[in-house]
Design goal:
This protein has eleven helices and five strands. With 275 residues, it is of the alpha/beta class. Among the domains are: 89 residues, Conserved hypothetical protein from pyrococcus furiosus pfu- 392566-001, ParB domain (Alpha-Beta Complex); 52 residues, no CATH class; 39 residues, no CATH class. A five-stranded mixed sheet has the order 1-5-3-4-2. The longest helix is centred in the C-terminal third of the chain and has 18 residues.
């Protein structure tokens, strides 16, 4: 079992790989004020390190305690946590101020590159699926401009995932601006990407996505018929009459009642040409 003891803040080392790339200063000072009133209510988790103690979990509490003017903080002391300490850090931060997908990806990538962790290692220690880990690593490796905004918390993970579907990197700047400046949702971003892709395919002379290989069957529109003579020939000389569609029948009945026109068409009508 770990030992619980109050440790002088001067003996606490900050994590060599903090899970958070940024911290909200306002929330950090709010936590410091709360600590002044109530003290540190949750133990920090530390491991021994050359006569001092490396903070594994509780980095924000460590910084806020300094702001609050404390000399000592309560800690759970482990002699050795090994590589599992990174899992402890991520698990604890997940219940506090939200850790972004970009910060998770940076941690996963750092453990893989600098410490030789394999994908199964990451899955086992963090209790996450391979897809979960690979998506966040891909964000950090392939989309640095998007990563910056996710860390700054002015772009959501849903927006970032939508932008990551974009294959043409020349469109990224526009999509990022739409997400950050104009608040485009993930669904809207997907629609933009579909539109860009359709334009790209059209320029290459290829059918747009979801377009059937066969040509559509065109149905010829029914010809209009003259209200006066009931003929449907000479379509080029038809004119538009400003009339509500629901009054067409009224007009036809009026013309019929007045005797002006609207007579049944005959076979001879088709042979007649307009004067």
């Amino acid at each position: 079992m770990p030992e619980r003891r109050d440790i002088n803040l001067d003996l606490l080392l900050e994590p060599p790989l903090p899970i958070r790339a940024t911290m909200d200063d306002e929330k950090l000072h709010e936590l410091a004020e709360d600590i002044k009133r109530h003290g540190v209510l949750q133990n920090l988790v530390v491991v021994t390190s050359n006569g001092k103690y490396e903070v594994v979990a509780g980095h924000r509490r460590q910084l806020a305690s300094r702001l609050a003017g404390l000399m000592k903080v309560p800690c759970l002391i482990f002699e050795e946590l090994g590589e599992a300490k990174y899992a402890v850090m991520l698990a604890e931060n997940g219940y506090r101020e939200d850790v972004t997908a970009a910060e998770e990806g940076m941690l996963f990538l750092d453990l893989a590159d600098k410490h030789g962790w394999s994908e199964p290692d990451l899955c086992r220690h963090f209790h996450k699926s391979a897809d979960y880990i690979n998506e966040r690593v891909k964000l950090v490796k392939d989309f640095p401009a998007v990563t910056k905004h996710v860390i700054a918390r002015d772009m959501t993970w849903a927006q970032a995932k939508a932008i990551m579907k974009c294959r043409n990197k020349s469109w990224l700047g526009y999509l990022i601006d739409q997400a950050v400046t104009h608040g485009a949702t993930a669904r809207t971003i997907h629609q933009y990407i579909d539109q860009f892709r359709a334009v790209e395919l059209a320029a290459a002379g290829q059918p747009a996505p979801h377009t059937p290989d066969h040509a559509p069957v065109m149905i010829e529109a029914e010809k209009q018929r003259c209200l006066w003579c009931q003929r449907d020939d000479d379509q080029i000389n038809f004119t538009a009459v400003p009339l509500h569609s629901y009054h067409v029948k009224d007009l036809a009945e009026f013309l019929k009642a007045s005797g002006i026109g609207v007579r049944p068409a005959t076979s001879q009508d088709s042979d007649k040409q307009p004067a």
